[in-house]
Design a protein that fits this description.
CATH superfamily of the largest domain: Spore Coat Polysaccharide Biosynthesis Protein SpsA, Chain A
Number of strands: 9
CATH topology of the largest domain: Spore Coat Polysaccharide Biosynthesis Protein SpsA, Chain A
Largest sheet: 7 strands, mixed
CATH class of the largest domain: Alpha Beta
Shape: elongated
Strand order of the largest sheet: 3-2-1-4-6-5-7
CATH architecture of the largest domain: Alpha-Beta Complex
């Protein structure tokens, strides 16, 4: 049970230059807001005396052995005694006096209140152009598209939340992608989110930041993709499969001429290859969804669960066997034509229009059968 209204939490790794300023500013913000609160510094193994500086400035220090931005914050949230937690970096880039912008929204019932630096103002030199015009806008847009999240600044380090709501998400990532994980999992869990404007100032450190643009940007994007099997697997797989089927249907009866270009069995070969690739990726999509739901890092989807009541192991096996039978039938007809020609030469283009679809159906049938068994194995706990 929380015995304070608010914990202001800062992750820390060698922040001796700015830590005292940040802690004092946070303490002053708590006092001026009239709430009962504390300042917690989650120290990630500082060797510059940051721990002593934090205590002298009025903070409680939590030692975190596991390295990483996310690891420090997870430990700090667990150790917090406040009903609400406000987190921000200890580099003097965020303004703790903006606390009154966040608390009322939490009191209104929001679980997560994000700061929006683009709405509140980014001071000159506070954010590299690469982050300001590419990294943050692109990653935030990807997050909004993938997860329908009403947040325009996914990676703002100043945010406030209900401690019990965030603890219930069981956040896991230990690196910078923790910022995305909190927002994504909050959305998947149905938590209420909103944003308030805040300001970003140049940090007060003389050393380079811990953030590495391309490495940490990729980690954020990778996280967003892994938590959205629809966008990572299903939509690309469905698009590839559809394109392959349309092209195959157009080329199976005979050559297709468009202007000066004629498309024949060579194009058909690649079209059927698209069908196979699309089918593989779609199976990955379903497998990832089942696995993610079973492991608890993706929420149950009622429509998906209803689909699994219809598409069972047995229906998958029947569908796979049907594809195999059609493929074998086409192969038998091809052999019949070959025998009818005395097992001699046949028209390559004519025969490829039989053998290529036959081989494709045989491969799809085998995949359907074994994918059905695999998905049934993944879903054992569901039953």
């Amino acid at each position: 049970m929380s015995d304070l209204d608010l914990t202001i939490l800062m992750p820390c790794l060698n922040e001796a230059e700015t830590l005292a300023f940040c802690v004092r500013q946070a303490v002053a913000a708590i006092h001026s807001s009239g709430v009962s609160g504390e300042v917690v510094v989650a120290d990630n193994g500082s060797t510059d005396g940051s721990q002593r500086i934090a205590v002298e400035a009025g903070a409680r220090v939590v030692e975190v052995a596991t390295r990483g931005y996310g690891a420090a914050l997870i430990a700090g949230i667990e150790a917090a005694r406040g009903k609400y937690v406000m987190m921000a970096d200890a580099d003097a880039s965020y303004h703790f006096e903006h606390l009154p912008r966040f608390l009322p929204r939490l009191d209104e019932g929001y679980d997560l209140v994000m700061g929006n630096r683009f709405a509140g103002g980014i001071e000159s030199g506070a954010m590299p152009p690469l982050h300001r015009y590419l990294g943050n806008p692109v990653l935030s847009a990807v997050g909004r598209i993938f997860f329908s999240i009403p947040v325009r600044d996914f990676h703002c380090g100043l945010r406030a939340f209900r401690r019990d709501s965030i603890l219930a998400l069981h956040l896991r990532t230990t690196g910078m992608e923790f910022a995305s994980e909190m927002v994504v999992k909050s959305s998947l869990a149905g938590l209420r989110m909103t944003e308030v404007p805040t300001t970003l100032s140049p940090d007060g450190r003389s050393r380079p930041p811990h953030l590495r643009s391309w490495r940490d940007g990729w980690r954020h994007l990778r996280f967003l993709l892994l938590y959205s099997p629809r966008w990572l697997f299903f939509y690309p797989g469905l698009a590839t499969l559809t394109l392959g089927l349309v092209l195959s249907a157009a080329l199976l009866p005979g050559p297709l001429t468009l202007g000066v270009y004629t498309f024949d069995v060579d194009t058909l070969t690649y079209a059927l290859g698209l069908v196979l690739i699309g089918a593989h990726i779609t199976v990955f999509a379903v497998s990832a969804k089942v696995f993610g739901t079973q492991e608890g890092f993706l929420p149950p989807n009622p429509r998906f669960e209803r689909l699994f009541k219809i598409v069972t192991l047995e229906t998958g096996l029947l569908f796979g066997c049907l594809l195999l039978l059609i493929g074998v039938g086409m192969l038998g007809y091809a052999v019949y034509l070959w025998r009818d020609a005395g097992f001699g030469d046949l028209s390559p283009t004519r025969m490829l229009r039989l053998t290529l679809p036959s081989a494709t159906l045989l491969m799809l049938g085998v995949e359907a059968i074994f994918a059905s068994f695999f998905l049934s194995l993944l879903g054992l706990n569901r039953r």
